[in-house]
Structures are given as structure tokens and as C-alpha cells.
UniProtKB/TrEMBL annotation:
Domain of life: Eukaryota
Any one GO molecular function term: estradiol 17-beta-dehydrogenase [NAD(P)+] activity
Keywords assigned: Oxidoreductase
Protein name, as recorded: Hydroxysteroid (17-beta) dehydrogenase 10
Record family assignment: Belongs to the short-chain dehydrogenases/reductases (SDR) family.
Keyword Coiled coil: no
GO cellular component entries: mitochondrion
Biological process, per Gene Ontology: androgen metabolic process; estrogen metabolic process; fatty acid metabolic process
Length: 249
């Protein structure tokens, strides 16, 4: 293999990542690649998730922090685990997310979209991502800056639904649009500390992995919005890797 390419692919060695939603789907693929490339990873996911088993299967450079991303105490514990077990935090990847598929008003049943469901999606996807960003940033700020002044990198997951929401996606689209909207001001807030913040706009995974989407819904959406192979898990990982490495992004 070309020496430079080899360096590029293995440059995560020694870094420490924290991945929310790391027990499933895109988050899990990110955790696996971090560990495979020589980094350490903290899986931040719900206590009911497969996080514990996944961490055990990936070995000493992986740990599980059972956490709800909307909880300040849980996320503080996860960030502390990264520092206590692996010494630092370099990368945070926000993949935890939920969705509901409900029309704004069901005229057949004469029932409006549940306000509670709408608020839950907004809370997990926007407030949960922000909770992780703000607490991870505090930890990254303790890192010594590298020669270019960089201390860390935060990557969020939005969706095609932020720009092209389908029927029944009011809550999900609003939540992903919120993530897109907060990215630039947060990036500007944290830039003076050398912490880069980006949001990936995922189209749709070519593999059905999401726990929140039924197979029927996935197939329908896939046929509506996807080109072949877009969103394949490994491609999503490569985007994360490129964003992390490309310091001009
Ligand atoms: N898979 C796709 O096609 C696709 C497309 C567009 C956007 N996205 C976005 O990418 C992200 C990952 O998607 P995925 O397909 O891997 O989803 P997934 O359902 O496979 O994984 C999501 C993970 O988040 C965890 N989670 C949910 N609520 C949580 C909470 N409150 N605290 C902590 N963890 C929580 C779940 O336990 C799960 O492990 C999501 O934000 C999703 O909206 C995915």
C-alpha cells in the first residue's frame, strides 16, 4: 500500500473518540472503525442497548457508557469515562437519534400529531446532540493544541430530511433542521479553542439498520430518495474520517 495512504488510513491511532448511538447502525460502524484503526472509543448509548456486549467484543480500547444523551449527569459520566480510561477526548460523533412517522393531522381518525412525540424527537435529536457537544467541548478544551492549534473535532448527524422531509416527518425534519442550524454558530463559538464542528447530512443507509424505521418504511423511503449505494455504513465512516482528518473543513 502507498505509504501516505497507509498513514492516512491509520492516523486515528492513539486518538480517543466518543460516539453516541454507538451500539447500532452508523454509530456502531464508527466505533468499530475507530478501534480497528488504533483509536479508543467510548460507546454512549441507552442502558438497554447492545453497547456493553459490543464494547466487550472490541477489547480494551473500547468502553461502554450507558447514557441517555438528554441527561446532563449521564453525558458528564461518559465524558469522564473517556478521560479516566483513555486519558483524553479528541473526537465526538453524535449518532444517537430517534424518529416518529406521523402526519400532522390524521383526518381519518380525527387525531392530531401527538405533541409529546414531537417534543421527544426534538429533545433527543437537538437537545441531546447539543448536550454532548457542550460537554465534549469542555473536555477537548483541556487538550494541548497541536502545531496547527487544533484540540478536537465534533461531528453531528443530520439527514436528507432536514432539507427534503417526506410525509409524516414533521418532527424528524424539524429536529435535523435544528442540528443543521446550530452547527455554524457552535463552530464559531468553539473555533477560537481549535475545536472543529461539522454536521454530516446522511441520505439513507443502503443497509436497513435503523432501529426506529420499519423495513416497509425504509424500502419506501429508499426508493424515493436514494441512488444505489448512497449512505452505505462504510461510506458514512469514510465521511467521518475525512472530516476529522481534513483540518480545513
Ligand atoms: N440510517 C439512515 O439511513 C439514516 C439516514 C439519515 C440520518 N440518519 C441519522 O443517523 C443517525 C444514526 O442512524 P442509525 O440508522 O444508525 O440509527 P439506529 O437506530 O441504528 O441507532 C441509533 C442509536 O441511538 C441510540 N439512542 C436513541 N435514543 C438515545 C438516547 N436518548 N440516548 C442515547 N442513545 C440513544 C439507540 O439506542 C441506537 O443505538 C441518527 O441520528 C439518524 O437520524 C440515519
Amino acid at each position: 500500500m502507498n505509504k501516505n495512504l497507509y498513514f492516512y488510513l491509520t492516523a486515528e491511532a492513539g486518538m480517543v473518540g466518543l460516539v453516541t448511538g454507538g451500539a447500532s447502525g452508523l454509530g456502531r460502524a464508527t466505533v468499530e472503525r475507530l478501534v480497528q484503526n488504533g483509536a479508543s472509543a467510548v460507546i454512549v448509548d441507552l442502558p438497554s442497548s447492545d453497547g456493553q456486549a459490543l464494547a466487550a467484543s472490541l477489547g480494551d480500547r473500547c468502553a461502554f457508557a450507558p447514557a441517555d444523551v438528554t441527561s446532563e449527569a449521564d453525558v458528564r459520566s461518559a465524558v469522564s469515562l473517556a478521560r479516566e480510561k483513555f486519558g483524553r477526548l479528541d473526537i465526538a460523533v453524535n449518532c444517537a437519534g430517534i424518529a416518529v412517522a406521523v402526519k400532522t393531522y390524521n383526518f381519518k381518525k380525527d387525531v392530531p400529531h401527538s405533541l409529546e412525540d414531537f417534543q421527544r424527537v426534538i429533545n433527543v435529536n437537538i437537545a441531546g446532540s447539543f448536550n454532548v457537544i457542550r460537554l465534549a467541548a469542555g473536555e477537548m478544551g483541556k487538550n494541548e493544541a497541536d502545531a496547527d492549534g487544533h484540540r478536537g473535532c465534533i461531528i453531528n448527524t443530520a439527514s436528507v430530511a432536514a432539507y427534503d422531509g417526506q410525509v409524516g416527518q414533521a418532527a424528524y425534519s424539524a429536529s435535523k433542521g435544528g442540528i443543521v442550524g446550530m452547527t455554524l454558530p457552535i463552530a464559531r463559538d468553539l473555533a477560537p479553542m481549535g475545536i472543529r464542528v461539522m454536521t454530516i447530512y446522511v441520505v439513507q443507509n443502503v443497509e436497513k439498520t435503523s432501529s426506529f424505521m420499519s423495513s416497509k418504511m425504509w424500502k419506501k423511503r429508499h426508493s424515493l430518495i436514494c441512488r444505489p449505494k448512497c449512505g452505505k455504513k462504510v461510506i458514512v465512516w469514510h465521511v467521518v474520517q475525512n472530516v476529522e482528518k481534513n483540518v480545513i473543513v
